[in-house]
Design goal:
6 strands; 2 domains; Rossmann fold
């Protein structure tokens, strides 16, 4: 199944794959919601998925499709080479993360390799892309990391202050600095950005995400 909101690119890619004697495109989708619905009906072995599309975020699409089809292999095919984005997709178990500039032979070989029992995750990005951006991780101080970790555990400013034995006003100052450094607009946003940058473990954020009424993770 090919999933991309650019119709011409999606249809061209589908035609290219259909030309391969051992590959068949069983469905095409233009957004995340359509992809989830079509995957349930078409039951593809492999899904080629773009990252930036309207509707449901691509990470949620991956999680929803793999929940319904545990054996499906999802290959991200995108122009985005951001290290945090790559790391997030690897965390949720994609079979590949490829730049749209890859060659036809390479793409088809990766698709075929997903059926191998000892297949490995295929990654194809430029050195100036994700690999070169690993050093761009936001620089939070040790104290700021402590603060955002406790915030991720759904603690209030007062609780954080008590836990760290500092003034509540100091916690607020640290949070302002954290928001600025992570370019975050809320506590949940700050936690998600800290997780994406691997400043705190993803498991820590579950307390905040699972709190009743709290918005889900940012993708």
């Amino acid at each position: 199944m090919v999933v991309d909101d650019h119709t011409l690119l999606r249809e061209t890619l589908a035609a290219v794959l259909d030309d391969e004697p051992d590959l068949t495109v069983v469905a095409q989708a233009g957004d995340g919601d359509e992809a989830i619905a079509l995957a349930a009906r078409a039951r593809p072995d492999v899904v080629l998925l773009d990252v930036q599309m309207p509707g449901t975020p691509a990470t949620t699409v991956v999680e929803q499709i793999t929940k319904r089809l545990p054996t499906v292999k999802i290959i991200i095919l995108t122009m985005h080479e951001s290290a945090p984005v790559l790391q997030e997709f690897l965390r949720i178990g994609v079979a590949g993360y490829l730049h749209k500039g890859v060659s036809r032979p390479y793409l088809t070989s990766v698709i075929r390799s997903t059926s191998s029992p000892d297949s490995r995750v295929a990654i194809s990005v430029s050195l100036r892309g994700a690999a070169g951006r690993l050093a761009e991780r936001p620089a939070l101080s040790d104290r700021e990391i402590e603060v955002v970790t406790l915030v991720a555990r759904a603690m209030s400013n007062r609780q954080v202050a008590h836990q760290l034995q500092i003034e509540e006003a100091t916690v607020k100052r640290h949070l302002r600095n954290i928001f600025r450094k992570l370019d975050a607009v809320s506590r949940v946003d700050a936690v998600n950005r800290a997780v994406a940058a691997e400043l705190i473990p993803a498991q820590v954020g579950q307390d905040l995400w699972e709190r009743p009424g709290a918005p889900g993770p940012r993708h």
